[in-house]
Design goal:
The protein has 525 residues and is α/β, with parallel strands linked by helices. The protein has three domains: 4-8 and 415-523, OB fold (Dihydrolipoamide Acetyltransferase, E2P); 22-280, inorganic pyrophosphatase (n-terminal core), CATH 3.90.1640; 306-411, Diaminopimelate Epimerase, Chain A, domain 1 (Roll), CATH 3.10.310. Helix content is 38%, strand content 20%. It has 16 helices and 17 strands. It has helices at 7-15, 36-48, 61-76, 97-100, 118-127, 166-181, 191-200, 207-222, 226-235, 242-259, 263-269, 274-305, 325-336, 362-368, 392-403, 428-436, and strands at 4-5, 53-56, 82-84, 107-111, 130-134, 148-150, 313-317, 340-346, 349-355, 375-378, 382-388, 420-421, 449-462, 468-474, 482-486, 498-510, 513-523. It has a five-stranded parallel beta sheet with strand order 3-2-4-5-6, with helices on both faces. Helix 3 packs antiparallel against helix 7 and helix 11 runs antiparallel to helix 12.
């Protein structure tokens, strides 16, 4: 039963999500990171001694931004840094033996990967090269034998807030190096890049993440960084929101690593002028269009393979592009409200991505069934995995058996409907209040409301190809007509001319005219 809401009760609900708001100056000292100071001293010594330093990142947005922050920081020391982002198809994930074949260095730093790099750590040790791992993924039972490991999720790490992304770990590490070398570098200049990572990697937008995203989005609006100027020009909005990053920017950045090579996105962030940044952004945009086509076809096929009674969806195919399995998994989670694992098979080997929802930790479910897996890693909401294709059926049965022990309430998405908002409360004052609780995202979902038995007055199709719907409705006990926009969906007039749907309230700025826009979230027929 959805409870009735007023602005006052809504304000109380949203306020209860946060403790006291932190200022930038209150971000916990990076020296609390286990091995943080030890690692910073080693890098400082390497710089003073003219040693070779190399960096290995990752091909998703978090890995690209982590690498970009380190590259830009080292430029300002200034000191040469050999930065490599693995190619998803040729190198696989993280600091692998393949990557190490291309690196000659005295010190190797990883960002957003490395916590499972047992083999790579051994190779580095044999070579006499110091491996410094910086990561945020959940450690396995065995840790790599590296010179140092910085990861807030280590059991012996005293950093007070654990849910930070790889780019935050890299940024905090740079702050420690700055202190060791007594450098005059303003760490706030990297917040534009950092905020993109936090949003794209679906970190909970509470505590320091909330502070960093808020400040980072402000920085993005004024930064002289060529990449930030291009992002601003592209979005063409007076205020950039976390949704703009999540839905417009992150997919473009991710498309490089998914379909071609993530170095395109890294070059975009580190571009020295807007001309170069613009060309790279255009390339990212066209890759993203291609990604959408590939993904739409594969998603349609995946939906047909889903066992709707399964607690955890596990689907596999030989024709699915390895680069889009993570997105397909997200689409399946949205459609079926179940965790989903999507596998791409080639030559008897299955590689894939897992996505979760609610309180179900996909990482823990994989860990419980690691006997079937050749590799896995990640965190509560998202993970990567590999296994022999012949074991898929047995793995599907086993992970569903594990999931059947979980409480049914764990599977309920966290961003469910808050309640039924009286239509008379939908005004600019409400919009202002909603904006004051931004940024929205993981752990601070954008408020979603419900219309019950609203009368449908008319439906018009919009867009070049008439693929979006504008639904004109009259809520119960209300004389005003509201417009609800449903993107990428064609709706026909229901027989009873009634609609039950959830929606969000947002601001629409068009031709310098400001209006309130309701966006359809889900139609409950």
């Amino acid at each position: 039963m959805h409870k009735p809401l007023t602005k006052h009760s809504l304000f109380q609900i949203l306020s209860s999500r946060f403790g006291d708001e932190k200022k930038l100056s209150q971000i916990p000292n990076p020296a609390l990171l286990h091995d943080g100071v030890k690692s910073a001293k080693r890098v400082a010594d390497a710089i003073r001694g003219g040693e070779k330093i190399a960096l290995v990142g990752d091909y998703d947005v978090d890995g690209i931004t982590s690498t970009a922050i380190m590259v830009e920081f080292f430029k300002q020391i200034p000191y040469p840094l050999q930065a490599t982002i693995p190619n998803r198809f040729r190198d696989g994930y993280g600091v692998s033996p393949t990557i190490l074949d291309r690196i000659d260095a005295d010190v190797i730093i990883t960002v957003d990967n490395g916590i499972a790099a047992i083999e790579a750590a051994k190779i580095c040790k044999d070579r006499g090269c110091d491996l410094i791992i910086t990561d945020h993924h959940t450690p396995g039972d065995t840790l790599p034998d590296a010179y140092a490991i910085i990861d807030p999720k280590l059991s012996n790490c005293n950093y007070p807030f654990k849910e930070i992304c790889g780019a935050e770990v890299a940024w905090l590490f740079c702050a420690l190096i700055k202190k060791e070398l007594d450098l005059n570098i303003d760490m706030r200049q990297f917040l534009d890049i950092l905020s993109i990572a936090i949003i794209a990697d679906i970190m909970p937008l509470i505590d320091i993440n909330r502070t960093l995203v808020k400040e980072g989005l402000k920085q993005l609006s004024v930064s002289k960084r060529p990449a930030s100027i291009i992002i601003r020009d592209f979005l063409n909005k007076p205020r950039i929101s976390s949704e703009d990053i999540a839905f417009q920017i992150a997919p473009r950045l991710n498309s490089a690593g998914r379909l071609e090579d993530a170095s395109i996105a890294l070059d975009f962030f580190t571009a020295s002028d807007t001309h170069q940044a613009y060309k790279l952004f255009e390339q990212l945009s066209s890759l993203n269009e291609l990604r959408k086509e590939i993904e739409a076809d594969a998603t349609a096929e995946a939906i047909k393979k889903v066992d709707e009674d399964a607690k955890v969806i596990v689907v596999a195919d030989e024709n699915w592009h390895e680069g889009v399995v993570g997105i397909i998994a997200s689409r399946l989670v949205d459609k079926f409200s179940r965790p989903a694992i999507v596998l791409s098979c080639e030559d008897g080997v299955a590689k894939g991505s897992a996505r979760s929802l609610g309180e179900v930790s996909i990482y823990e479910l994989l860990k419980e069934n690691e006997a079937f897996l050749t590799k896995y890693g990640g965190h509560k909401m998202a993970a990567g995995l590999g296994l022999d294709a012949k074991d898929i059926d047995a793995f599907r049965d086993a992970i569903n058996k594990s999931a059947s022990k979980l409480d049914e309430s764990d599977f309920i998405p966290q961003h469910d409907v808050l309640g039924v908002l009286d239509a008379s409360e939908i005004d600019f004052e409400l919009l202002e209040m909603l904006e004051s609780f931004e940024p929205y995202g993981e752990a601070n979902p954008k408020p979603t409301f419900m219309f019950k038995d609203a009368e449908v007055i008319d439906i018009k199709l919009m867009g070049k190809d008439k693929s979006h719907s504008k639904i004109y409705i009259k809520p119960q006990k209300h004389e005003s007509v509201f417009e609800i926009v449903a993107f990428r969906t064609v709706y026909e007039m229901p027989q009873n001319r009634k609609i039950n749907c959830s929606y969000t309230v947002s601001k629409n700025e068009y031709n310098n005219r400001l209006s309130i826009q309701l966006l359809l979230n889900k139609n409950y027929l």
